Amino acid sequence: MKTKYLYLFWFIALLPVMVLRDYTPNNELRYLSIIDEALRNGNFFTFTLDGEIYADKPPLSFWLMMAGKTLLGSHQMWFLSLLSFLPALVVLMVMEKWMRKEKSFAYQPDGLLMLMTGGFFLALTITIRMDMLMVMFITLSLYTFFKIYRGEGKKRDAYLFPLYVFLALFSKGPVGILVPLLSTLIFLLYRGKIRTWQQYWGWKSWLVLLLGCGIWFTGVYMEGGDAYLNNLLVHQTVGRGVNAFHHKSPFYYYAIAIWYLLAPWMFLCVGLIIAGVVRKKIQTETEKFFLTIILTTFVMLSLISSKLAVYLLPAIPFLIYLPAMLLDKFDEKNIWLRLSVAVPAVVFAVVLPAVFYIKGINEISYIAVPLVYAAAAVISLGGITVLYLLFREKALRKSIRVMTFTLLLTIFIAGLALPQLNPYMGWNTLCREAIRIAEEKGISEYYVYKISRPGSMDVFLGKEVIVASEEDILNDTLSGQLLLLPEKAVLNNSQIQSVISGKEQHKTGPYLIVVL
Q: 10 Å Cβ neighbour count for 144?
């Protein structure tokens, strides 16, 4: 199958999720709330969340989101999804272009298929975050560096390389510059060519970086003053790197995270890399560069105090494509290679029984809808097929391809079920119903109780919510108002049950809307 058809199949498989799903309350709605505040306040370089400084993220992704709302008149899921999907597509295309230049093995699409369905790469392709945008620029910068290193670069690459590095920094922060800087310098040192570092990190590169940062920091200072600039340069860099105030984890964090980051290819990829190192199969310049990127990124992120699984995303294309290159150097009938794919295939095979089991668990029984059953049947059948191919035909590559297409077809079918699942996953349905009731009753305020991070509801409601306390509810001080709360908050509190028992109630997913 031609590569362009694989890209098309991937896009179609992800399309229902990109169009039909609701925003996640914890992160995506928070970003949209930040965008709305910036547009209201006329800010361009500085951002706030509920009036408080939000210097966690650079502006590039926020600018794209702001442009979307300005052009379309409202936040649109399809547009915002493209802000992750298109960068992911570019990463795939760059890695494919890179591989097709490699003469040490006969090209196979396994790396492409595995990356398309690889754990967090797949998840971040359909999530509204700035991580994939940064990964795109990091991948472009590393590819451009390697072209120059191999003597294949053009004059423009001397400027494109630092431009990509700056845009990676401008997308997500310091990791955007640290990964290319450390990976390239360590690779040059490893290959005995460190004296050529100025060819890549000379005055042209630093001029581009300093000019870009100078414009950025000047804009920040003019809009937010010393306080915002200090938060950006000190609190968000030194604070996170040395003694994290968020997401602090031990040194070995990524040694655990890598196993689900690469699912379902974790055993195959990690096993091939380890075997490649031990058996000295990593021989070409490309393979050695990929290994350098993986190890450098892994160690660097492990040394940084603040850790999240998503931070390892820049290494995932190389964690998958290096094993894809090494696959040709091993016998695909090798029992250990086949077992590395068989383990996740067994998990696939038991998904359908697991969904039937979940139906009996009240907290998550909402998942058991017909389309989810259909998706579960597809993935279970695919898992059984993969096991047959692995142990009857001993066909590893065919198994990888069947598993890939099985996973994408499962995502497509499950994505069609999202309109039924959205009330349990986001707040759009809840807020639309709250607006309808408020207009019908002539109520102007929205009160919330026991809902985590409710401030971002203003994206849907068009105004700030008011957080109610238990005393407010029990003392009847909210009479005539609208209260939004989780149903379990009522079930777990007999006093609140007695207060609202005679009130008008509307159930939406796991939430209640009560007219007090």
A: 25
Q: What is the dihedral of CA 175, 176, 178, 182, to 10 degrees?
A: 130
Per-residue pLDDT reduced to its tens digit, 84-132: 999 999 999 999 999 988 876 667 899 999 999 998 999 999 999 999 9
| Cis peptide preceding 423, ω within 30 of 0 | no
Instruction: Report the Cα–Cα distance between both ends of the chain, in Å, rounded.
Output: 61
Place of tokens 């200072």: 221
Rounded distance between C-alpha atoms, residue 394 and residue 417, angstroms: 35
Backbone angles phi, psi at 464, to 5 degrees: -70, 140
pLDDT digits (tens, 9 = 90+) for 157-196: 999 999 999 999 999 999 999 999 999 999 999 999 999 9
CA distance 303 to 85: 30
Identify whether the C-beta of residue 209 lies closer than 8 Å to the C-beta of residue 165.
Answer: yes
In terms of Cβ atoms closer than 10 Å to its own Cβ (0-12, 13-18, 19+), residue 125 is buried
Taking alpha carbons only, the member of 63, 58, 120 closest to residue 88 is 120
Query: How many angstroms separate the CA atoms of 112 and 98, rounded?
Result: 11
Kindly tell me if the per-residue pLDDT of 241 is higher than 60. Answer: no
Cα separation, 229 vs 185, in Å, equals 29
| 3-class SS of residue 334 | coil
**In whole angstroms, how far apart are CA 127 and each of 85, 311, 399, 418, 500?**
9, 14, 28, 15, 37
Strand partners, 513: 484, 506
Cα angle 228, 82, 84 (rounded to 5 degrees) comes to 55
Beta bridge pairs of residue 504: 515
Contact 485, 455 (CB under 8 A): no
Lowest mean pLDDT among 15-29, 229-243, 300-314, 455-469: 229-243
Q: What is the DSSP string of 17-35?
A: HHHHPPPPTTTHHHHHHHH
101 Cβ contact list (under 8 Å, min separation 6): none
Question: Do 47 and 62 touch, CB atoms closer than 8 A?
Answer: yes
Radius of gyration from C-alpha coordinates of the chain: 25
pLDDT of residue 243: 55
Average pLDDT (487-503) is 88
279-284: long-range contacts at Cβ-Cβ below 8 A with a sequence spacing of 24 or more? 281/326, 281/329, 281/330, 282/322, 282/326, 283/104, 284/102, 284/104, 284/325
The residue behind tokens 């754990």 is: 119
State yes or no: pLDDT of 490 exceeds 60: yes
